[in-house]
Amino acid sequence: MRLRLLVVLPAALACAAPTDSSAVRSRGAALDMTFEEFLASAYREPFEGGVWIVDGDTPVATREGMRDIYERIGTRQRSYGSGAAPAADALSLNTVGGADDRWSDTQKRELTYCVGRASFGSRYDEVVRVMAAAAAAWEAVADVDFHHLAAEDDACDASNPRVLFDVNAVDSGGEYAARAFFPSTERAARNVLVDGSAFGGGGPIDLEGIMRHELGHALGFRHEHTRPESGTCFEDSAHRPLTPYDRESVMHYPQCNGDRTSRFDLTPLDAQGAASVYGEPGGAPAERPDIPAPVREPRPADPWGTPAGEPPPAEEPPSPSRECRGASGGLWAGEVHRYPTLDVPAGRAITVTLEGVGDPDLYAWMRGSAAECASEGPDARERCELVSDGTGLRVDVYGFGDAEYDLRVCW
Q: Is the pLDDT of residue 39 over 90?
């Protein structure tokens, strides 16, 4: 398996739009490297306490978090070409284990931070001003309050427990302009770090715009371009939709099919999404958006529900030595069902079929080789054939659109 679109981006604001808009459906093959190779190839901040950076400006502090990213890439999440993506919704809120990643109703009014005086040197006053302006932009649309504790600025680092997060200068070597965190992030990585490239770099997005974007992450909001409508830069599905898609959003990279004139200003849809999570400014209670959250029946602990030895489909003549497994499920657009590895003896011919309604896509591959298959038709009839090399068969079903499906694997 080979990776053609890597979701771990090398730098903030560094996501390139596809050059061929006719390449609508396929993201390409999956990741052809071990986890250790993947970890070694990912960017990690070179200073003490540095973390891995994914999706341009999002920190991942632990190996376990990076393994989760690695597994998500292995599920063949895909970029969409323009014009054929299913309808979906955003601004989006990050989720962890299916739960909203947001500040509590108490903490949201005590979002305290310091600005490293020694770290920024002559730029300290500018950063203090810019942070206050960026915070005010979010405070104007949602019931949140950021507080600069200037008394902590001389002891402003990740070990300071008297502030919720710290703001400091770093030299990332140009890997990102700035990076932030999500509410669920541990204190050690709960920083807004600013590279020298964020100061006067030219173009419409200035330091204040960058800080508006990064404080959006600090409130729990995901990149807007992870939505299917952007046509590129898809990251993952660990988020909850809040508003209709907005290519001008403060959370949308311009080069990911966003607004090329963007200044990272908050839009009316950004304001609507923020208020739906944290309430209107001044303490009005938050209202759940009109868009319903996906509801699915829990999948069984053993998703392979068909016992060994069930007869294969009618078009495949029964064989005493042939085994089959079956499963079924429902998918929302953008959702992935990844099935447990099946141990298939080497040399066996494998047939994987999918039937149902809607538009699911089928992927099958052997874990230890380049043997793989992608079936991405416009309906629910998909089929993959490959030969086992004995390293274990992986099967994913991806919701290109909403779908119900029945899956069968025979060998």
A: no
